[in-house]
Specification:
Shape of chain B: globular
Strand order of the largest sheet of chain A: 1-2-4-3
Number of strands of chain A: 4
Structural class of chain B: mainly alpha
Distance between the termini of chain B: 38 Å
Oligomer: heterodimer
Order of helices and strands of chain A: HHEHHEHHHHEHEHH
Radius of gyration of chain A: 22 Å
Helix content of chain A: 40-55%
Number of strands of chain B: 0
Structural class of chain A: alpha+beta
Strand content of chain B: under 5%
Shape of chain A: globular
Largest interface: A-B, 14 and 19 residues
Distance between the termini of chain A: 35 Å
Largest sheet of chain B: none
Number of helices of chain B: 5
Helix content of chain B: over 70%
Chain lengths: 277, 107
């Protein structure tokens, strides 16, 4: 699917064809896409456990659903991808190794000052990086665990955003839900058998939508003019109507919800699945 | 009990549901009948049910328990019973009483 159409069609899908299995290769394709997501220092802190709802024991299924307050969309979606941030795998040493690798393969040019020596001096000794390369000593030297956790979490959140687009690209519906409330995190780790150092970020619901892919239309967006600025805050970035028209034609900007018939659709879906109106 | 539509909670229910789904009179009539029947069984009017359910979680849970029993007494068909329950659950939801909703069971 065209990139702009994928972004334009992405919705948080909340009503799934609960009975329809998702092909394993489609799940793999989502995971493969996320593997290529951008990330500082190429540390790739995201981890995922793919759970097929119908393969769970009743006890584990109910426990996992309870962690998300039995949200109806979670009950319906046949595949749950639990995304975790590997906090212990995101420390200074990981960063150092991966940045060395980036230098060795030519991703970080030495002519900007990136060398093993400069990286080690900055990360291990806290010495100032030469101008031209990132001031990694300010973030990575003596990196406390809570900062590593912050980095791991924020990068995993970014990866999850890509994961949603990858799902749409496969013609699937998807939605990010809370994996577990704080008090249930140990139980979640225990059921999925993940290490202590993995922090749950989101559970990505995946399935074929029972609602149409547009799910009633695009959600309201904040005004462009109060979101983006030109040079300094207060001067809105000019929005060219021609560009907007082009993006409409290319499928990024679509009809806003509620599209005509949305509540009729919900009414029929409620009736079909047995939810009260 | 007075005419069912005269109660404030019923009026609020109608207004909320119609705000989204604009149900026809034909769709409303069986809903009113179900709510009326439930009120009769629990021997309370709609406003009193909501007042109790909002005021005391245990009361609300008790109403839901009685709702399940009520629905089962009306029919042996589990799907129709589920639909009857949903009518009263909808009445609770649109009056601010938090209740669990579930789809049809697959069995």
């Amino acid at each position: 699917m065209d990139f702009l159409q994928v972004v334009g069609l992405r919705r948080s899908i909340r009503i799934y064809r609960s009975w329809e299995k998702v092909e394993r290769e489609k799940i793999q394709r989502i995971l493969e896409v996320v593997r290529h997501t951008t990330c500082p220092g190429n540390i790739q802190p995201w981890r995922a456990v793919v759970v097929e709802r119908d393969k769970l024991s009743r006890q584990d299924r109910e426990a996992l659903l309870a962690m998300d307050n039995h949200q109806a969309a979670h009950v319906q979606a046949p595949v749950w991808i639990y995304w975790f941030a590997d906090v212990d795998g995101s420390g200074a040493e990981t960063f150092r190794k991966r940045v060395h690798e980036l230098v060795d393969i030519g991703a970080l040019p030495t002519f900007y000052g990136w060398t093993h020596e400069a990286i080690d001096a900055a990360i291990l000794k806290g010495e100032a990086a030469p101008e031209g390369m990132a001031a990694v000593q300010t973030l990575i030297h003596n990196l406390p665990r809570e900062m590593a956790a912050l980095v791991a979490r924020q990068e995993t959140v970014g990866a999850c955003a890509i994961a949603t687009l990858a799902a749409v690209n496969e013609g699937l519906g998807t939605c990010l839900h809370m994996a577990a409330t704080a008090d249930k995190v140990p139980k979640l780790r225990s059921i999925l058998k993940v290490p202590e150092g993995w922090d749950p970020i989101w559970v990505q619901l995946v399935g074929y939508p029972a609602e149409e892919m547009e799910a009633g239309g695009q959600r309201p967006r904040l005004p462009f003019e109060t979101t983006y600025f030109d040079g300094t805050y207060g001067k809105p970035f000019p929005r060219d109507p021609k560009v907007v028209e082009d993006l409409k034609k290319e499928g990024l900007i679509r009809e806003q919800m509620p599209k005509p018939g949305r509540f009729e659709e919900l009414k029929h879906l409620a009736r079909a699945f047995g939810f009260p109106l | 009990m007075n005419e069912i539509k005269s109660y404030a909670t019923v009026q609020k229910w109608i207004a909320n549901v119609n705000g989204y789904y604009n149900l026809s009179d034909e769709e409303w009539e069986p809903r009113f009948k179900t709510l009326e029947d439930f009120c009769r069984v629990v021997d309370q009017d709609p406003d009193a049910i909501i007042a109790e359910a909002l005021g005391d979680r245990a009361e609300k849970i008790d109403y839901i328990r009685r709702l399940r029993a009520f629905a089962k007494e009306q029919t042996a068909n589990p799907q129709i019973a589920h639909d009857l329950e949903n009518v009263v659950r909808s009445f609770f939801i649109h009056n601010g009483a938090r209740v669990v909703t579930r789809p049809y069971t697959e069995s």
